[in-house]
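User: I'm putting together a small comparison set for a docking exercise, and I want a reference complex before I start. The sequence is below, and the ligand is L-homoserine. Could you produce the 3D structure with the ligand included, as structure tokens?
Assistant: Of course. I'll restate your input first, then give the structure tokens for the complex.
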Amino acid sequence: MKHINIGLFGFGCVGQGLYETINNSKNFSGEVTKICIKNPDKPRQLDDSFFTVVPSDILNDAHIDVVVELIDDADVALDIVTQALKNGKSVVTANKKMVAENLEYLVELQKETGRAILYEGAVCGSIPIIRTLEEYFGHEPLNELKGIFNGSTNYILTKIFEENIDYETALDQAQALGFAESDPRLDVQGYDAKFKLSILLTHAFGIHVPPSQIVNLGIDRLKPSDLEYARDKELQIKLVAKAVKSEGQVYGFVIPQFIKAEESLAGIQNEFNAVSLTGEFCDEQLFIGKGAGSLPTGAAVLSDISALSYDYQYEYKKHYNLGKLPFSNDPSIQVYVSFNRPLDINLQDFESLKSKFFCFEQSYVVGNIKLSRLLKASWRENPNVNIIVQPTFDQEENQRLSIEELELEVSDLRKGQEILEKISL
Ligand code: HSE
């Protein structure tokens, strides 16, 4: 195995995890020779001589073979990665936003420079899903990819459901444990999982779908009444990322979902992630592993560095070998939508409605809506509105409510509410 000199950008949670995994790996031949940091005044565990604040100390150092980029800022990360590849170095990164938003460019840049960029640590922490898709599933068509791609939200949901801990406390814990992003809105609003889904779409279906085209909803609007609804029906709630190939196109989204106890994703707890793949030949396979945390993510980065020692590169087999599948937001999904006031949503956006509960303080409807409508619906931004995917349950399959009749009911409710508001003024 070739000895690898590593230049590291960033020495936060994952950077320190990587350092520890390298020190404790018995057969990895390589070392971190320089670390570029933003804040030189922060106390560090390593000798000052390791650190620099000048990127070119790494990027222009001919002795450094591999640049490992583990910083927060996606724009700065892209500059570092670009410069490193152009300077003849291979790159490992765990920056999902940077990779997802620039994947097409990064594929071209690898062709141009002949150097590799690997990013297993960017998607589902320690689950080796990208290399599995690249190597094992390189030639098998996939029909579905779904899973839990964010450790922080899964940790929070586990604490809420299993231990009755409130949302804020659970989020604080996820941050303290180093699972959450510096800006935890990326986790709880589903952006982080969406970046990961966007990357996997390239490796699973051969298509580049910019994150902006994918609907993402988070767990930050969960209300006590939603939890009550789930508990009543013996359901869990998980933040699920999903992509499906259907009728010659692919659709996908990141939205919280009700899960039955017997479903495979129900057993995935705390910071664990899961990826379920359904192949045309192999049927379903489920991969489970820690999706966040210093050592699990550090281990994924180490595995990429080690793969570079035998000149491994992603081949993007499906991207190059398959006819281009279109990505579409035209399909509709069944959702449960809870809201405080009837004014909060527009029933006309739904294709059909299957059940409802209306009252002044807390209402919900269950119905089908096109992803494209959901993407554009302004009421989806309303903090009182919470949306959860509801797979079809047997007893509701044949029900269909009249949207017009419901509109009348809502209109009566609105009038009642206005009267109540006037009286209370
Ligand atoms: N914030 C991310 C998560 C870290 O919670 O999954 C790993 O990508």
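Residues 332-424 form one domain. The chain has three domains: 4-122, 132-291, 332-424.
User: Thanks, that's exactly what I needed.
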